[in-house]
TrEMBL record:
<dbReference type="InterPro" id="IPR041233">
    <property type="entry name" value="Melibiase_C"/>
</dbReference>
<comment type="similarity">
    <text>Belongs to the glycosyl hydrolase 27 family.</text>
</comment>
<keyword id="KW-1015">Disulfide bond</keyword>
<dbReference type="GO" id="GO:0005975">
    <property type="term" value="P:carbohydrate metabolic process"/>
</dbReference>
<keyword id="KW-0732">Signal</keyword>
<dbReference type="GO" id="GO:0005576">
    <property type="term" value="C:extracellular region"/>
</dbReference>
<keyword id="KW-0964">Secreted</keyword>
<dbReference type="InterPro" id="IPR017853">
    <property type="entry name" value="GH"/>
</dbReference>
<comment type="function">
    <text>Hydrolyzes a variety of simple alpha-D-galactoside as well as more complex molecules such as oligosaccharides and polysaccharides.</text>
</comment>
<feature type="signal peptide">
    <location>
        <begin position="1"/>
        <end position="18"/>
    </location>
</feature>
<keyword id="KW-0325">Glycoprotein</keyword>
<dbReference type="Pfam" id="PF17801">
    <property type="entry name" value="Melibiase_C"/>
</dbReference>
<dbReference type="InterPro" id="IPR000111">
    <property type="entry name" value="Glyco_hydro_27/36_CS"/>
</dbReference>
<protein>
    <recommendedName>
        <fullName>Alpha-galactosidase</fullName>
        <ecNumber>3.2.1.22</ecNumber>
    </recommendedName>
</protein>
<dbReference type="Pfam" id="PF16499">
    <property type="entry name" value="Melibiase_2"/>
</dbReference>
<dbReference type="GO" id="GO:0004557">
    <property type="term" value="F:alpha-galactosidase activity"/>
</dbReference>
<keyword id="KW-0378">Hydrolase</keyword>
Length: 436
């Protein structure tokens, strides 16, 4: 039921300049799977259909995972169709074309995504869409595509930006604290990055997609360049805020630290994207996998699984199926994410790639409570304590009913605070409910 309070929240939460799409597409952060972190360029129709079938059989579809996304390397290198100018699906790896795979994915009740770049070639060197935005958007629509990841490779030199922007990963200049003191050619303070050549390259594809009859979610991937946080939500449904993730805790912590400073940009229809999930990949521990997933979920990042689903361990499968985190992530009333309320290891607002904020909280309308997350960023076991009176949503009352989101265990009526011993890089996630 929509109460007047709910309507007030919805209205207040809607940024005037967001890219609002039909049928609520892009209103909430996306849930799905993508081929890249699992297979890289070794992608083919059968790998895509296996993933789609696994999403159904593992119960992920029932939890809302819906997009099955083909990343780079799906086409024929170096040519376009001389008649239609379209990109040609690789006839060996995609014998029924992209439309054939799309039809089978749709038959499972799922949606399908594809990949291109705002340049002349993709990152792996295949034809990309700069200058062919209309042709490609029309082809994607004809093929039944529902989601486009749009990368930043193959950019010709005459599309370079006039100025440099500070990027959080520090590819340009050095940024010990998230600023770029050594940046050359910085933009003047009043510069509008929405008018930059980078922004224009992405606008062109947005406009071409908006002309199509299909609603195609637009996922920008400019790696945090050109101050994309300031214009991303006018252009796309989500925008990558950093360079690529890897299946290493140090990289996951680094991106979490960067994204933690961008939480004011998260709202309905607009989501900074800290890149796809690595849950199940590399040598991440069970604790690191669940910390990665929980942080991405509470930051309301797109949750795009990037592993071979039928090889996922029971622990990691349980992690990506966690009902409390998915409910929080898909909240229909609160567009805002969890915010850090205390850094913990560091003084508040410290930019530290190894030790991101450790204490987070945010409201849930569906669970009628507050989700609280505690993270141990240290390399050994340590205790973390949630103190009700430090948490904005809980201040002013002493006792709350608490549920542990990993075990589902009711911890009863908890007075003033809750302490946990956490292994290295583990998280505790609590649902804190009514007063008691
Ligand atoms: C399809 O791709 C998967 C994942 O890389 C690979 O294991 C499989 O051998 C490929 N199948 C064919 C027919 O090439
Ligand atoms: C190019 O497009 C035409 C028209 O749709 C089609 O008949 C032809 O098979 C395509 N060529 C290739 C190489 O895909
Ligand atoms: C975009 O690129 C063109 C051609 O290289 C250049 O003249 C122009 O200054 C650039 N515009 C911006 C806003 O950076
Ligand atoms: C770069 O050159 C291409 C080809 O001449 C042109 O279409 C495009 O508009 C140029 N880009 C800019 C930013 O001027
Ligand atoms: C960030 O680091 C630079 C260079 O070390 C320093 O000049 C600047 O004051 C620092 N900024 C903040 C906000 O700490
Ligand atoms: C995992 O750890 C093993 C042993 O330390 C190492 O050889 C391997 O390269 C690691 N794999 C990845 C993907 O990091």
């Amino acid at each position: 039921m929509l109460t007047s309070l709910t309507i007030a929240v919805l209205a207040a939460a809607l940024p005037a300049d967001a890219l609002v799409r039909k049928d609520g597409v892009g209103r909430l952060p996306a849930l799905g799977w993508n081929s890249w972190n699992a297979f890289g360029c070794d992608v083919n129709a059968s790998a895509i259909l296996t993933a789609a079938n696994d999403i159904v059989s593992l119960g992920l579809k029932d939890l809302g995972y819906e997009y099955v996304n083909i990343d780079d390397c799906w086409s024929v290198e170096g040519v376009r169709n001389t008649t239609t100018q379209r990109i040609i699906p690789n006839p060996t790896t995609f014998p029924d074309g992209i439309s054939g795979v799309a039809a089978q994915v749709h038959a499972l009740g799922l949606k399908i995504g594809i990949y291109s770049s705002a340049g002349e070639t993709t990152c792996a060197g295949y034809p990309a869409s700069l200058g062919y935005e209309k042709v490609d958007a029309e082809a994607f629509s004809d093929w039944g595509i529902d989601y486009l990841k749009y990368d930043n490779c193959g950019v010709p030199s005459n599309w370079t930006d006039k100025y440099n922007a500070c990027v959080p990963d520090g590819d340009i200049g050095t940024n010990p604290n998230g600023t770029c003191p050594d940046l050359t050619d910085p933009a003047p303070p009043e510069y509008d990055w929405a008018k930059s050549n980078t922004s224009i390259r992405y606008d062109r594809m947005r406009d071409a997609l908006l002309e199509q009859s299909r609603t195609i979610l637009f996922s920008l991937c400019d790696w945090g360049n050109a101050a994309v946080n300031t214009w991303g939500k006018e252009t796309g449904n989500s925008w990558r805020m950093s360079g690529d993730i890897t299946a290493e805790w140090s990289r996951i912590a680094q991106i979490a630290n960067e994204n933690s400073f961008l939480m004011n940009y998260v709202e309905f229809w607009g989501h900074p994207d800290p890149d796809m999930l690595e849950v199940g990949n590399g040598n991440l521990t069970v604790e690191e996998n669940r910390a990665h997933f929980a942080l991405w979920a509470i930051m309301k990042s797109p949750l795009i699984i990037g592993t071979t689903l039928n090889k996922l361990s029971a622990d990691n499968l349980a992690t990506i199926k966690n009902k409390y985190l998915l409910d929080f992530h898909q909240d229909p009333v609160y567009g805002r994410p969890a915010y850090p309320y205390k850094w913990g290891y560091n003084p508040d607002w410290t930019f530290d790639p190894e030790h991101p904020a450790e204490y987070w909280s945010g409201p849930s309308s569906t669970m009628k409570g507050t989700l609280v997350l505690m993270l141990n960023t240290e390399d050994s076991t340590a205790t973390r304590t949630a103190v009700w009176n430090e948490i904005p949503e809980l201040m002013g009352h002493d006792s709350y009913r608490v549920t542990d989101a990993w075990s589902g265990k009711d911890l009863g009526c908890v007075h003033k605070k809750h302490s946990v011993s956490l292994k290295s890089h583990d998280v505790s996630v609590l649902l804190v409910k009514g007063k008691c």
